[in-house]
Amino acid sequence: MTDITESGARLSERTAVSLGIFDxxxxxxxxxxxxxxxxxxxxxxxxVFTFLSGSVTTKGDVxxxxxxxxxxxxFEDLGVDFxxxxxxxxxxxxxAEEFFDKIIIKKLNAKVVCCGGDFRxxxxxxxxxxxxxxxxxxxxxxxxxxxxxxxxxxxVSSTRIxxxxxxxxxxxxxxxxxxxxxxxxEVMHGRKLGRTLDFPTINQQIPPGTVLPxxxxxxxxxxxxxxxxxxxxxxxxxxxxxxxxxxxETHILGLSGSLYGKRIRVNLKKxxxxxxxxxSISQLKIQVCKDIENAGKEVL
Length: 300
Known about the structure:
By secondary structure, the chain is an alpha/beta fold. The chain has helices at about 25-35, 70-75, 90, 95-105, 130-140, 160-165, 170-175, 195, 280-295; strands at about 1-5, 15-20, 45-50, 80-85, 110-115, 140-145, 150, 155, 180-190, 200-205, 215-225, 225-235, 245-250, 265-275. The chain has 2 domains: about 1-155, Rossmann fold; about 180-295, Riboflavin kinase-like (Elongation Factor Tu (Ef-tu), domain 3). α1 links the parallel β2 (about 15-20) and β3.
């Protein structure tokens, strides 16, 4: 995938462009991306227009599903050819007509445009799909408005997924995403308390600005060097030992050795219990033993 965000170049290849914020790249977003992908049969390249998620703020929002870095990785995994992801402030004052001419036509060289029915654009989000349809018609661009994907009677949305994550409903979140939510971060040095409990753990930072899942203990899957392991992970602030910065700490069943500096994927599979402050380290150790035993019985 070629990221043309920092480039002043305009695409020479004709493209099918997907429009949206794409936070999480969930099954609704993938329907839009698939509509653009379908246009490869007509010789078109695929391009995604999206704002840097961190530059678009919504009052009361609990954070992003994924960092922009992770979102780019997902686009690349899906085979997107070109990505244009500027900061919102760069384009916020463009009228709908200016946005269409400068970005859709001149920058991205669109032959086909794909989006959801709720897509808004132009200054103060003043234009919607009806205005987009008119602009496409005037410029010989085909518009494909992709219907919402329905999950349990309602349209899939990033808001629904965030609500599922913050309440510990991991099964629903994963089903709406179409993949398991998790983290792909570097292993950091911690306080090494897990080793004193005979349960070595890896510590990973939760990317700033992203949604915090319900604090507690999760059954997880851990991927390392082509192998898959069962894990038990705590997301939270480790109240028993006085930590106050949220992180994910994982004990990997059947694996030992130093993993510092490695980037490891940890996916959440099931919420098992609330985070608890214990009166002593010995009580914590007893509970961790129970958590590991329970994790070993769960079906992944």
